[in-house]
Write a structure and sequence with these properties.
Elements: E1 2-7, H1 12-22, E2 27-30, H2 43-54, E3 60-65, H3 69-75, E4 83-85, H4 89-97, E5 103-107, H5 113-125, H6 132-146, E6 158-160, H7 164-174, H8 180-198, E7 204-210, E8 215-221, E9 226-232, H9 236-245, E10 250-251, E11 253-258, E12 265-271, E13 280-284, E14 287-288, H10 292-303, E15 308-312, E16 315-316, H11 318-327, E17 332-335, E18 337-338, E19 341-342, E20 348-349, H12 355-360
Parallel strand pairs: 1-2, 1-3, 3-5, 4-5, 6-17, 9-10, 9-11, 9-13, 13-15, 14-16, 15-17, 16-18
Antiparallel strand pairs: 7-8, 11-12, 19-20
Helix pairs in contact: 1-5, 2-3, 4-5, 7-8, 8-9
Length: 363
């Protein structure tokens, strides 16, 4: 079994004893910390281990701090991570049998080392009973799916970013009197801020770094391949902002326009990276209105081999979200605002008008 393990400075010594014993029968992935001498913020290893388990990169996780409480609180913020702070063999077993916990939290200051090792072994050997407990744990997963989190299980979600900077800049570009130069700059800035949030779960790996003071272990991106695909022409306004953040991302382009009579998308251009099937794809389009263009863009990317696709827009309408998720329920939709509706002309209300015209000053 692959077991991810992490600790803060208070749990370091116990973590090392757990690794020495558990590595006899399991593959251990150590997420730090690497010393008891330097203070470590417990959320850092907790979140790295929790993400590893939630993504199924590790089958189970073990976290150690002074009491186990802080680790459990932090780990349980990650959708798909179910951490239990236990203090005996019995509670460890019950956390598996009844709760299907996939992360065990231990307190180095309240448990003897031998007791903690015994608990970890019992916990790793205990299966989930299922049955009536399956119904109860499913209710937890159902809440996660409805709570605006990007699902780790591949079910597309709608995530609305409420960061103050995002909301402030959005208010400025909604204003009809905002000049073209300011509008264009803010669209690019919004794209950067939003994709910063979208990419917070990119996988990382531990590397060794020489600082001016000493050598230490740190985290670096684990080689995830990304592609951004703006929908012409308005999506171009978001491209530079994303590339400023992720300069090595490959860029594709999809040309679609909306027929003014039918409001249906018409394709006129498609150029994608050859290895699109190996990349996480972010479709960029400031406005998700009727949803026709976005759904058509996802269709095109999937026909070229794309698999993991997300849509990043600034403003979305409920009608557009329904169209995209009806056709592609696996696509995550990220936006800064979910507005009220579409008007009779297919524009988002209150919206900000035609994003393409306002970006390029063509109206």
């Amino acid at each position: 079994m692959i077991v991810a393990i992490g600790s803060d400075h208070a749990g370091f010594a116990l973590k090392q004893e757990l690794i020495a014993e558990l590595s006899k029968h399991h593959e251990i992935k150590d997420f730090g910390t690497d010393t008891a001498e330097v203070s470590c913020d417990y959320p850092d290893p907790a979140l790295h281990v929790a993400r590893s388990v939630a993504r199924h990169e590790a089958e189970r996780g073990i976290l150690v701090c002074g009491t186990g409480i802080g680790m459990a609180i932090a780990a349980n913020k990650v959708p798909g991570a179910y951490a239990a702070d236990c203090w005996s063999d019995e509670t460890a077993k019950m956390s598996r049998q009844h709760n299907n916990a996939n992360i065990l939290c231990l307190g180095a200051r309240v448990l003897e080392a031998g007791k903690a090792v015994s608990m970890a072994k019992a916990w790793l050997e205990t299966p989930f009973e299922g049955g009536r407990h399956e119904r109860r744990t499913e209710k937890i997963r159902a809440f996660e799916r409805s709570a605006s989190f990007a699902s780790v299980q591949g079910q597309g979600q709608v995530v609305v970013f409420d960061h103050p900077l995002i909301q402030h800049k959005l208010s400025v570009i909604r204003d009809v009197d905002t000049p073209v130069k300011t509008f264009r700059e803010l669209v690019s800035e919004l794209a950067s801020l939003m994709v910063y949030e979208v990419t917070r779960d990119l996988p990382v790996e531990m590397v060794e770094v020489q600082t001016p003071i000493s050598r230490t272990k740190a985290y670096a991106l684990a080689g995830k391949k990304l592609a951004i695909v703006p929908i012409l022409r308005a999506g171009l306004g978001m491209t530079e902002g994303v590339l400023n953040l992720i300069p090595n991302a490959k860029v594709g382009h999809i040309g679609l326009y909306r027929d003014p009579e039918t409001l249906k998308p018409v394709e006129y251009y498609c150029k994608l990276p050859r290895d699109i099937g190996e990349r996480d794809v972010l479709i960029l389009d400031p406005m998700l209105a009727t949803g026709g263009s976005s759904a058509a863009a996802v269709d095109l990317i999937k026909r070229h081999g794309g698999k993991k696709i997300s849509l990043v827009c600034i403003i979305a309408a409920p009608e557009g979200i329904e169209v995209v998720h009806s056709a592609h329920p696996d696509v995550n939709i990220y936006c800064a605002a979910l507005d009220t509706c579409l008007n009779e002309h297919g524009y988002i209300v209150p919206g900000l008008g035609d994003a393409g015209d306002r970006i390029f000053g063509t109206k």
